[in-house]
Amino acid sequence: MTEGTRWQFVGFIAVLVILYFLLRVGLGLGALAPDLLVVALLLGARRMRAGWAAGLGFALGLLDGAAHPQTMGAGAVALCILGYAGARSREALAGDSPLLLALYLFAGKWLYDLIVYLLLIKPHLAGPLSTLVLGSPLAAAYAAAVGLAAAAAYRAVA
């Protein structure tokens, strides 16, 4: 995803964030909507330094926490860690291969779910372990597929 100017890419990330809140909160789809916030962070982290990516993750986590106050701190910390890790993994995941991007998005979403689960380990907040083992990989695959489609759309437009 090296095409386009910086402002085009910032606009693309902003559109993903707006779509996340529109689908999850505005239309009330909740868990049926893809986690575009994680996708936006992971795609943005590939172009940012680690500190800036962690800051973006923290800011996105606070925005998400405003919509879901019961998990505010956990989401912000998880996105902060994920942004830092995503930016640091840029050298290891160099290239524009769709398969590599899909694996990156899949692993990032699953790592996000794992961090949130560990931070909300209380049974009434985190839910059963089966959601992490069975539901999270499906959500990660869904987010990876949507992230690939979004990246392809960005390449076509930029």
Describe what you observe in this structure:
The chain has 7 helices and no strands. The protein has 158 residues and is an all-alpha fold. The protein has one domain (6-157). α2 runs antiparallel to α3, α2 crosses α7 and α4 packs antiparallel against α5 (98-119). The longest helix is centred in the C-terminal third of the chain and has 29 residues, at 129-157. The protein is globular, with a radius of gyration of 15 Å.
Uncertain segments are none
Report the mean per-residue pLDDT as an integer.
Answer: 89
The biggest sheet, with number of strands, parallel, antiparallel or mixed sense and barrel status, is: none
Helix amount: over 70%
Strand content: under 5%
Q: Number of helical runs? A: 7
The domain count comes to 1
What structural category do the secondary elements indicate?
mainly alpha
Q: Based on Cα principal axes, name the global outline.
A: globular
Short description:
Helices cover 77% and strands 0% of the residues.
Descriptive keywords:
158 residues, mainly alpha
Task: Write the topology of this structure.
Elements: H1 6-26, H2 36-45, H3 50-67, H4 72-88, H5 98-119, H6 123-126, H7 129-157
